[in-house]
Design goal:
With about 725 residues, the chain is of the alpha+beta class. Among the domains are: about 120 residues, Pleckstrin-homology domain (PH domain)/Phosphotyrosine-binding domain (PTB) (PH-domain like), CATH 2.30.29.30; about 325 residues, no CATH class. Helix content is about 35%, strand content about 10%. The protein has an eight-stranded antiparallel beta sheet. It has a four-stranded mixed beta sheet with strand order 11-12-14-13. Strands 9-10 form a two-stranded antiparallel ribbon. A hairpin with a 4-residue loop joins strand 7 and strand 8. It is found in: Cytoplasm, Myofibril, Sarcomere; Sarcoplasmic reticulum. It comes from Nothocercus julius.
Amino acid sequence: EIHIKEPIEKEVNPHLLPGELLLCEANMVYKYIQEDGSNRGTYGKLICTNFKISFLDEDSASDDNEPQFKNKIIGENDITLQCVDQIYGVYDEKKKLLTGQLRKYPEKLIIYCKDLRVFHFCLRYTKEEEVKRIVSGIVHHSQTPKLLKRLFLFSYASAAPNNTDGRNQTVMFDTLEDWRDELERTKGNVKYKVVVTNEGYRVSEKLPLYFVVPLCVSEENILKFQGRGIPIWCWSCHNGAALLKMSTFPKEQDDNTSQMQKAFLDGIFRTISNPPYELLKREDLSSSLPSLQDIQTAYTRFKQLFLIDNSTDFWATDVKWFSLLESTNWLEIIRRFLKKAIEVAECLERQHSNVLLIEESATDLCCVISSLVQLMMDSYSRTKSGFQSLIQKEWVTGGHSFLDRCNHLHKNDKEEAPVFLLLLNCVWQLVQQYPPAFEFTETYLTVLSDSLYVPIFSTFFFNSQHQKDTNMTGESLKTQSGPFRFLTVWDWSVQFEPKAQALLSNPLYAEKPKPDKSQRKTTRFKHQRQLSLPLTQTKSSPKRGFFREETDHLIKNILGKRIGKFIINSSDEPHNSFREFYDSWHSKPVDYHGLLLPSIDGPEIKVWAQRYLRWIPEAQLPGGGTIATAAKILDLMEEVQSLQVKMDEEHSQAVSRDVQAVPMLRNSARLSSLFPFALLQRQSVKPALPTSTWKDLEDEDDLVKRDDEFVDLSGDIS
C-alpha cells in the first residue's frame, strides 16, 4: 500500500538567510518517510542553495505543530552542504555512490548526513531536465572540492546584520588580558608568563597570537625554534603542578641541528624539573594513543550502525548488535582516551608532577587529553561558560585544524578525523555518569556536535587563528568593504529561542559542593537499552528494553570473545599506583566540585544514545527514558519559579530578568525517550524478517509486538 499526500497546490517559498542564493530546484519530488520500509511520503519541492539542501512541502509553510526544540537556522528538512556525508543514487533497485560528473541520472536519491539523518527522495515523477539540474547541483555543491572563500560563512558574514553579542561570558582567548586572567585564576602566574612574541605571526602561523610558557623560556629561543620544542602552558593545578603541551621538532634534520635541539630540550626539561617547578613527566601521546587514522576508521564503522535505510535493516542488525558494536572499536578508543586522562590527572593530583603532553603538532590528541584533564580536575570547566572557554582555549585558539579534520572543503580525505567529536563522546561519558556535576546537558553536547556543520559560525571553520585573521577582510556583496564580522557558535540565541535554550542547561546542577551529604552510590538513571558491551554474563529480564534478550548461543559467542580488552585490568593493565589511585577515588563519596574520575570498566563506556539513535523511531521508548523524570523536575521548577515571581511582586513590581525560561513538557503526554530531537512518531511494527531468530522470539511480550503505551507525564491520569 502506498500512502501519498496530494501534490501541493500553493507555492512554497524557501526561507533564505542573508547571503543565501537559490542555485537549483526541482518540483514534484516525492520524499519517503522511511520509518517502516513502506512507500509512505509526501510531494514537494527539492532545492539547493549555497548554504543548504532543503525539501519544501505544504507542512513547511505552516507553523502548526512546530517542535518545541526548533532550530531557527536549520529546519527539519534542511541539510547544510557541510552536513552531507554521502549521496547515493538508485538505478533499477541498485545503490550507487554519486561523485563528480554523472552520465545517467538516478530514479531515487539517498542522502546520508553527518548528523546521521537519512533522506530518501523519489525523482520518477520529476521532469527530466529538473532531475539533471538538482542531482548534479547537489552532488557538485556538497561533494566537490571548494575554496575557503566559497564557504557560506563569508556570504553570510558580508550580508547579515551583526547585532548579536557573541561573547556571552565565554572567554575567547584572543587578547593578552584573557590569558593573564586565566593565569591568575589558576594561580599559575608565579611560574609562567604570557608572551607576545608571536604578534604578527612572526614565530608560527599555527600558534595563537598570545600563549603562556615557563618563565625560564626566552623569547629568543621561541623565535629560534619557531615555537616547536617549546613547553606551552595549558592549565595549573591547585597544588602548583601544571599541564603543558609541546610540538615535536621535524624528524628530518641534519646532525648539527638535531644536537642543538636536543641540548635545548635537555636544558628546558632540567629547569622545569627543579624548584620552583615540580618534577616533570613526559607523555608521548603519538605512541600511547590511537592514531588519527585509527580514530577515523573506527568512527566510519561505528556510524554505519546508525545510518539505517528502513525498519527492516534496523531489526536485521539488532540480532548481531554486540558483535557489530565491538568490531567498530569506537568504545574502546573512548575508553583509552579517558584512561590516559586519568593517568595524567593522577600525576598532577597525587604525584604533584608537571605533565608535558607531546605530539607532532600538539593540536589533535593533545587537545583531547588536556580538555578531559581540565574537565576532571577543574569544576569551572564543568559550567557552560567554563566549558565554552575551554574549547576556545584548547581547540580554537589552540590551533586544531577544524577545516581539515571535518573536511569542510572536501580537499583531502586523508586529513579527515573526528577528533572533536571524540572529545564530545568522552565528555558525554562524564556527563551521564555524574549529571549534577555539569551545568550543561547531553542535549547541549548533541547540539554542539551538530553545530560543527553549520557554516554561519566561524568557530569550527578555520584551521588556526592565523587563517581566520588573514581571511577577515573582504568586500561585501552589496556595498562597503571591510573586515568580516563572523558569529561565534557560543551565541545560542542565533539558533534557539529562550525556551529551547533552557533544555541546554541542567536543572539539577549542584552549584555548591555538599560533601557531607553526598553519597558515593548516587542514583543513576538505568539505561533502557544495552548500549555498552557486557562485562559478565548475567540473566537479563525479557523486558530489558529494545536490545532485548538475544538467543543464548549469541550471548555466549559474544562473551567468548576477548572482551578483556574492554576492562581496565587487561593486557594493558596500568601500574599499581594508577590502579590504587583509581580504586581509592571510587571508594569515596563524590565531590561534584572536586576531582571527577569516570568509570572506565567495559560496561561503563556506553553509546551516546541521544546523538546516535535520535532519528531511528524503532529505538525510541514512548514516555520512557530520562525524559519522564526530567518532565516532573521541570514541572516542579516551573511551579517554584512562579511562586518566586509572586514573592518578588510583593516586594517590587519589577520581575527578575535572570529567571531562565523552563521548557513546557507537561502537556506532551507521549514524549519519546530521545526527546527533544525526536517526538513519538509512530507505533513500532514487527519486522518482516523470516529468520529463525525471530521465530524464537515470537513469544516474547516485547517492544516489537505490543502497542505503545499512553503515558501522561503531567500526572493527570484519566
